[in-house]
Design a protein that fits this description.
single chain, 738 residues, Serine Threonine Protein Phosphatase 5, Tetratricopeptide repeat, 8 strands
Length: 738
């Protein structure tokens, strides 16, 4: 034995073995990180390790047979050991020591710094959590892909209705269509224990569906099946029901009797209606102006083909309300009436349809936010809770419920609800713009900026986060950055309203030409065209013309209150017509008008401050002071700047209370915080704000105003340089570390 060891040592086999082992260690450590990063399947890494191991034995054989001499590489048997003196091995020994240090360094880097994802702090994954990846179509026919998407969507919907399962929503799993990532990666990214993959093939009057349920942690199959059926609507839904049931059974998910009924239900008996519904869902999820128009038509087509298609009725209602909320391109009365009719129809067909209850909650919430004069918020909460009972994994419900809680002033619960929505739908778009808004309410403006930039990084082709960030920058007093982000929004959106928030910035910059271009390009058949036309009169200080254009409309109820009434109130106040201003406030905020004991909160405090000024001018000082005493603590709880900021409301309140020196100090502090413009906070520009008129004669006020104007001029020049050079990146980059 000693002789063999001596011979192995003399032939350097042991030294080569040690060196190869160290190199192998480095190679395998690196491969375990890099291969998954580039989406390599699990078998690639296994093959990689086998090759490294085979190389070890090859290296040992070569070390035994060959020797490196001053005359080159020679076979051991050809060397005359009496004439050959082996060279010093010190260099080799140092090399091996160096490799050992390197290997240890790699191990420390991977295992202590968190680069190795598999050994990072484990994420708690619920046993009954699942993601259903988009089904692939084994055909180049586009219609077949829609068919495959429909099967995927229905299976996902059936599973989402099971309370004991946590099912990732369609939006997030849609990001993994045609992905090169392996099952383990997808499971880690979505935080699920199991993944469903499937493929659909249509040939003639037959359809083949292959489905497999895979353990996300081990990449092992839990269950798989192939279904060959004649192509008709009964067979399609029977297969989807069987697949969903068998997946639930494989995951040991207990089903209630109601869930069992929903599992086997067929939503339609018309395969063409089914295809239109699937296309509509895809268009609705995109959320763009054009895609929502197409989604509306898809759902109407589905209903025409099958008037008893409950899911299509509910989806049509959702499309109408989202179109109204996001784009204002439909009259309010039409949107509400048609949505209510569609919801009622859906629930009359299927009284246990979760989507219909969720959309009913959305409608009730929107109506309540318009007036706040009834218990619509309570009704909406009940509808959302019923939807959650019927389908705990319906992410939209949590998103809308969060908006309701925010309107009620409960930001903490809103954040909890949105966090729940993201656990179900990690790549859903809406939470990524709603969550920053909630943090803005808390005054966490830097976090708001960071989250909006994150949304843009995740969804670079979606215009909404650009719009939110532009609005946020404007209300932080960073007008040049706001304009840069607004231009990005306009480049991505087909909505004629996109970039509308920039009008106020152009007004501050004195760029009436840009305002005129926006007005001229705005479509005359848009429901908000009269408001836009009135705004042109308004900024030209033709207040009578501004009021006349809106009042000429046959039904002012179809105008969004947050667009039309601030303009009407502002024009009336600046025109000195306080009685008319009071009437407009009473119409838009009936709980503030009159002599009732009004409740003032973050949603109506802006109007309450203006109403206090109007009441002073109407010689009703007692009511004015009551409003101011209620408004001041509400304002003091709000952030001063940012998209949820109050601007100079404290300054206005102190001025009306006669505390002029305190008002000047508050104005100086507000300008120090970044305030430069009333645009976005008030219905008028800073230089024409009638509430703070008593401050203008104070020399301190003039000095503060001069500081504001200097900063506006600097930002105007920044924009001018960017427009001349076409280089906006410098302005866009300013918010990176905000």
């Amino acid at each position: 034995m000693n002789g063999l060891l001596s011979e192995l040592r003399r032939r350097n086999v042991l030294r080569v073995a040690a060196a190869y082992a160290l190199v192998s260690w480095i190679l395998i450590e690196a491969g375990s990180v890099l291969l998954p990063t580039f989406g390599a399947p699990e078998w690639v890494f296994r093959t990689y390790v086998v090759i490294v191991i085979i190389g070890f034995f090859i290296a040992m054989i070569i070390a035994w047979i060959f020797e490196i001499t001053p005359d080159g590489v020679r076979r051991e048997r050809d060397i005359d050991r009496s004439d050959y003196k082996p060279r010093s091995r010190e260099t080799m020994n140092f090399a091996i020591i160096g490799l050992l240090v390197l290997a240890l360094g790699v191990s420390v880097t991977f295992n202590l710094t968190g680069i190795r994802k598999d050994e990072a702090a484990p994420v708690a994954i619920a046993r009954n959590s699942i993601a259903v990846l988009p089904f692939s179509s084994r055909s180049t026919d586009e219609e077949n892909q829609y068919f495959a998407d429909g099967i995927h969507d229905d299976i996902l919907t059936r599973l989402a209705a099971i309370e004991s399962l946590r099912v990732i929503s369609r939006t997030s799993v849609g990001e993994y269509r045609n992905t090169s990532k392996n099952i383990r990666q997808i499971g880690q990214e979505l935080g699920v224990a199991a993944i469903v993959e499937g493929a659909v093939q249509r040939f003639g009057n037959q359809v083949r569906i292959n489905v497999q349920l895979i353990d996300a942690a081990t990449d092992e199959h839990i269950w798989a099946a192939t279904f060959d059926k004649a192509l008709n609507i009964e067979n399609v839904f029977d297969v989807q029901s069987e697949i969903s049931t068998r997946i639930a059974a494989a995951l040991r998910a207990a089903l209630t009797p109601a869930e069992e009924r929903r599992m086997v239900a067929a939503p339609t008996d018309n395969i063409s209606a089914y295809a239109e519904y699937v296309k509509g869902r895809a268009n609705l999820s995109t959320r763009s102006f054009a895609s929502l128009q197409q989604a509306r038509q898809n759902f109407m087509n589905a209903i025409e083909l099958d008037p008893d298609y409950a899911q299509a009725h509910a989806a049509l209602a959702q499309t109408l309300l989202v179109t109204l909320s996001n784009h204002k391109s439909i009259a309010i009365s039409d949107a509400y009436a048609m949505a209510a009719n569609s919801i009622d129809k859906a629930l009359s067909i299927d009284p246990e349809l979760a989507e219909a209850y969720a959309v009913r909650g959305l409608l009730q919430m929107m109506r309540w936010e318009d007036t706040r004069s009834d218990q619509g918020n309570i009704d909406a909460a009940e509808s959302f809770q019923r939807a959650i009972e019927l389908s705990p994994s319906l992410a939209d419900t949590y998103v809308w419920f969060a908006s309701l809680r925010t309107s009620e002033g409960d930001v903490n619960e809103a954040i909890e609800l949105l966090t729940r929505a993201l656990s179900i739908d990690p790549l859903s778009r809406i939470p990524y713009v709603n969550l920053p808004s909630f943090y803005a309410v808390r005054g966490q403006n830097a976090e708001t900026t960071r989250m909006l930039r994150q949304a843009i990084a995740l969804f670079p082709d979606w215009s909404t986060p650009y719009s939110y960030l532009s609005n946020h920058m404007q209300k932080l007093g960073r007008l040049d950055e706001a304009l840069a982000w607004g231009r990005k929004e306009m480049a991505l959106s087909e909505d004629p309203m996109s970039g509308g928030q920039l009008i106020g910035i152009y007004r501050d910059f004195g760029n009436t030409e840009a305002i005129m271009n926006f007005m001229e390009n705005f479509p005359q058949d848009h429901p908000l065209y009269p408001v836009g036309k009135s705004y042109w009169h308004y900024i030209m200080r033709d207040y009578d013309g501004a009021i006349r254009n809106i009042e000429a409309m046959s039904d002012m109820a179809d105008l969004p209150k947050d667009f039309a009434y601030p303009l009407l109130v502002g024009a009336s106040v600046l025109n000195g017509d306080y009685e008319r201003a009071y009437d407009y406030i009473s119409q838009s905020h009936p709980l503030l008008g009159g002599d009732s004991d009004a409740t003032i909160d973050a949603k109506n405090v802006d109007t309450a401050v203006i109403l206090a000024f109007v009441e002073q001018k109407r010689n009703r000082p007692k009511h004015a002071q009551e409003l101011l005493q209620k408004a001041l603590p509400v304002v003091e709880e709000l952030p001063r700047m940012g998209m949820a900021g109050h601007g100079i409301k404290v300054v206005q309140i102190l001025t009306m209370q006669g505390r002029l020196s305190a008002a000047i100090e508050a104005l100086s502090a507000t300008v120090d915080a970044g305030f430069v413009s009333s645009q976005g906070f008030d219905p008028w520009a800073f230089d024409e704000d009638p509430i703070i008129e008593p401050l203008r004669s104070d020399p301190r006020f003039r000095a503060i105003e001069q500081r504001m104007n200097q900063r506006i001029e600097e930002m105007r020049r920044n924009v001018e340089r960017a427009e001349e050079s076409g280089a906006w990146d410098e302005l866009l980059a300013l918010s990176e570390n905000a």
